[in-house]
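TASK: fixed-backbone design
INPUT:
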């Protein structure tokens, strides 16, 4: 990984020398340091396991001139306690599906694991009518709140609350501005150019609604999709849908369909409510592995393990520095229930504290059994 990091630094240095207008703006460094404590158990509170994570991030941004921009972001995590000792955890957090592996892990039998990754390394060139971005980036096509079928390049995991920046992919994105919207062409690939993905998106506006339509190729599947965002009176109303078809003949073709719809509303006195639904034709009733869903990397063809699920959220802004919310994920036929209560407090502009729970239950006969109970306490300092 050190050689690859040196290569990225060298390319940025060469670009700096090449730019004739390098005095336009100085490079900007930002980041944060977070400490995340976790307590977990399945059924017996006496068997609670404790883990901690020290999470640091450094973001580098430089606008060389009015056309050229560079960005490199790195993420460092140190896991302590019981979590790093679990089988397969190192492979789970250290995965890097990019064209070039920029992930590195070190671990010890004494119970610690260190993970480092560069999740942004890009150069962007823009004019008045177009923008071209090359490198590791986030290609964000999702417009929904909880589940984003249209987000085929960088899938969002609702449960991974500690990764607000979301993962990136190695590829390109070309955006052409149109009078009533934009036309985008994007592509990415994995190691040795495996798992190629290529798609085009057209976005426009019809009356009070933002619309988008996409088509492309995802691994061995062809896809078409659409999404919208607007309002029904005073309530927000948006949704996305994707249809995948493999390259087999019609009589043996495999189809995968995902659709999500959301309505939300902002009430008076700081209250907010949201309801969302996801249909996943690939879903099943297999609930194995849900206890580690916070750290899993999801696929846009399988956003949740179940076929039908709903999400509900109620949030209250008590003051400018204090907010509370409760989210519920419910499997309609599989009787899965996930409760996510949270409390956030901002002690200062750059100090934030979050208390959050992830409580998973599944129905077994007439009763519910625990799949995992997690409590997180996070303190964050931004600079």
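OUTPUT:
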């Amino acid at each position: 990984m050190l050689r690859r990091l040196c290569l990225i630094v060298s390319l940025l240095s060469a670009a700096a020398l090449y730019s004739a207008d390098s005095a336009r703006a100085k490079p900007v460094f930002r980041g944060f340091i977070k400490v995340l404590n976790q307590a977990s158990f399945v059924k017996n509170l006496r068997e609670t396991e404790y883990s901690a994570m020290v999470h640091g991030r450094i973001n580098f941004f430089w606008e060389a001139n009015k056309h050229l921009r560079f960005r490199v972001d790195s993420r460092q995590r140190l896991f302590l306690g019981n979590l790093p000792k679990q089988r397969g955890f190192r492979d789970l957090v250290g995965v890097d599906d990019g064209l070039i592996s920029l992930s590195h892990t070190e671990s010890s039998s004494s119970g610690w694991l260190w993970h480092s990754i560069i999740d942004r390394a890009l150069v962007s060139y823009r004019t008045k009518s177009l923008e071209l971005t090359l490198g590791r980036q986030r290609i964000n096509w999702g417009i929904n709140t909880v589940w984003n079928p249209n987000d085929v390049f960088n899938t969002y995991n609702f449960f991974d609350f500690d990764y607000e920046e979301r993962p990136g992919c190695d590829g390109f994105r070309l955006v052409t501005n149109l009078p009533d919207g934009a036309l985008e062409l994007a592509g990415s690939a994995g190691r040795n150019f495996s798992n190629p993905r290529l798609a085009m998106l057209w976005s426009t506006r019809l009356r009070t609604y933002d619309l988008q339509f996409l088509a492309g190729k995802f691994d061995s599947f062809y896809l078409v999709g659409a999404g919208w965002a607007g309002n029904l009176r005073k309530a927000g109303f948006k949704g996305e849908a994707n249809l995948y078809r493999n390259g087999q003949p019609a009589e043996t073709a495999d189809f995968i369909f995902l659709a999500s719809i959301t309505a939300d509303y902002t009430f008076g006195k700081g209250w907010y409510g949201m309801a969302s639904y996801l249909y996943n034709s690939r879903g099943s009733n297999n609930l194995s592995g849900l206890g580690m869903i916070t750290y899993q990397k999801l696929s846009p063809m399988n956003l949740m393990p179940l076929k039908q699920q709903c999400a509900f959220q109620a949030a209250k802004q008590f003051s400018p520095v204090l907010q509370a919310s409760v989210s519920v994920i419910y499997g309609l036929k599989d009787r899965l229930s996930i409760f996510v209560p949270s409390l956030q407090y901002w002690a200062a502009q750059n100090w934030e504290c979050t208390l959050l729970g992830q409580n998973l239950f599944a129905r077994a006969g007439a009763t519910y059994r625990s799949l995992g109970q997690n409590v997180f306490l996070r303190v964050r300092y931004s600079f």
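COMMENT: The chain has a mean pLDDT of 89.
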